[in-house]
Design brief:
By secondary structure, the protein is an alpha/beta fold. It has 16 helices and 14 strands. Residues 66-73, 247-258 and 470-481 have low confidence and may be disordered.
Length: 481
């Protein structure tokens, strides 16, 4: 199994910096299914080519039952196309051998990793189960020029038809990270098979690698279904989250401007710092050690949680992978000592869907999030947090609309943030929180945040939910959760 990558970028040997691989030596690594080799057939200033070659051990595959569909008779585990035709083994090798390039990192030349350069990827044999048309439908929307060649199964018997295997060449001026990401996801999709068990982790992997291109791909449904081996529940979850991300994408482009508008309104009061301090005070007061930050955005609360050693396990979740990447950079997670890094995890996920990763935490913080949800999504969120995740304590903050008249720069009747679906009065918030607490077996108390104005209250209102004695949870069917 072979993949080659070539460039005519000047100097072409910059490819070595991007891949973190020295053109002067071959690198070999043992994998569970055989050996992977990286070497450079040619490396000059004008043209540089790197090859990733896999030697797949058929006996090891048979013993481990990797990639065996069980429908080819007793010899099928030993005689098959796994060692020769590009498949999910190649994706695993890309992830292991070219991890830095796949992640878009270049220690010596960081600016180069963000540069689009002319690249050509060649795979001599791809199991294109779906024909040449499918190959084009997968790669051409991503901007690649696609060159394919195939052959008859046997020239002596033309009636047998064309082989399901093709030789593939892709060319484009693109970042190396993007090319590797597209190959990583789409090669197993073409093969329509995976050699390992597909579970929840594969959904996260697909969403991570598909960020920025998969939500808008015309073959999104097919890609997700095949990548997840047609497991219905996982496929539905991944598609739902991709749809949520796709809907949010145009808004995210304006999010920074909108956030600046909201901060401009609230900044004279130092309200952000007061919110963080109030939430941290409650978390410390309930002695929470395992904490969720739901809708964590770019990591504003996470920074405070990470600085406090009381919090031993911190999970930040947001629907936007881009926001999580920003949070990762701002928190400098890659530079933290191993013990510190182990305390925090950032995951992409929607607050509209049940997620087992949210289970087992003592407290959850939901800071300035619920006002961004319309009524159906708010109802789903209630179940996700209070019925399924069910932390012992939950802290929710939201604007107090009564206080808006105090802000001189906020026009009458306008919300603080253009993405807010509502801004509640104190009575409305207390009514909602009381209903939620009664329905799911919690008690709730309220605390103002910020300077209070006569008859208007404070600019931010906070509800602190605590799990009471077990009761019958009154719920109604919710399709989203």
């Amino acid at each position: 199994m072979l993949l080659t990558l070539s460039t005519t970028h000047k100097p072409a040997t910059d490819l070595g910096f991007l891949l973190h691989k020295n053109p002067a030596r071959m690198q070999t690594e043992e994998l569970s299914f055989g050996k992977a080799h990286i070497f450079y057939p040619e490396a000059s200033e004008e043209l540089c080519t790197v090859a990733l070659m896999l030697e797949v051990d058929s006996i090891a595959l048979a013993r481990g039952r990797h990639g065996s569909s069980g429908d080819g008779g007793p010899l099928q585990p030993y005689v098959n196309d796994r060692p020769y035709a590009a498949n999910s083994f190649l994706s695993v090798a890309i992830g292991r051998m070219l991890a830095s390039a796949l992640g878009g990192r270049s220690k010596d030349r960081p600016e180069l990793a963000e540069t689009a350069i002319p690249l050509i990827a060649r795979i001599p044999c791809v199991a294109a189960r779906g024909g040449e048309d499918l190959v084009r439908r997968l790669f051409e929307p991503l901007g690649y020029a696609v060159v394919l060649s195939s052959a008859l199964l046997d020239e002596r018997f033309p009636d047998w038809g064309t082989s399901p295997y093709v030789s593939l060449e892709l060319s484009a001026t693109v970042r190396l990270q993007d090319l590797l990401t597209h190959l990583y996801v789409l090669i197993p999709v073409l093969d329509n098979e995976k050699h390992y068990w597909v579970g929840d982790d594969e959904v996260e992997k697909l969403l991570k690698r598909g960020e920025g291109w998969l939500p808008s791909h015309p073959e999104k449904d097919l890609i997700v279904s095949r990548y997840l081996k047609r497991q219905g529940e996982l496929t539905r979850e991944a598609l739902a989250r991709l749809i949520a991300e796709d809907v949010a994408e145009p808004e995210e482009q304006k999010e920074q401007v909108r956030d600046e508008e909201e901060q401009k309104v609230e900044r004279p009061l130092g309200l952000h710092e007061q919110r963080m301090g109030a939430v941290l005070s409650v978390l410390r007061g309930v002695s929470a050690k395992r904490v969720l930050d739901l809708g964590c955005g770019e990591g504003k609360l996470l920074r405070y949680l990470l600085a406090d050693q009381q919090f031993e396990a911190i999970l930040g979740m947001d629907v936007s992978w881009r926001s999580l990447e920003i949070a990762k950079d701002r928190l400098k997670l890659d530079q933290l000592p191993e013990r510190q890094r182990a305390r925090i995890e950032l995951v992409q996920g929607s607050l509209m869907y049940r997620d087992q990763r949210l289970n087992g935490f003592e407290a959850a913080a939901v800071v300035e999030v619920i006002e961004h949800l319309d009524a159906p999504r708010l109802a789903s969120f209630e179940r996700v947090l209070f019925e399924f995740a069910r932390p012992s304590h939950a802290i929710i903050t939201t604007p107090n609309s009564e206080y808006n008249t105090v802000f001189e720069t906020l026009p009458a009747g306008q919300f603080r943030h253009r993405d807010h679906r509502f801004e509640w009065t104190r009575a409305e918030f207390e009514q909602w929180a009381g209903d939620v607490a009664a329905r799911f077996g919690y008690t709730v108390r309220f605390q103002p945040i910020g300077p209070e104005a006569p008859a208007l209250g404070a600019p931010t209102q906070m509800a602190i939910f605590s799990l009471s004695a077990p009761t019958d949870i009154q719920t109604e069917p919710q399709t989203n959760a």
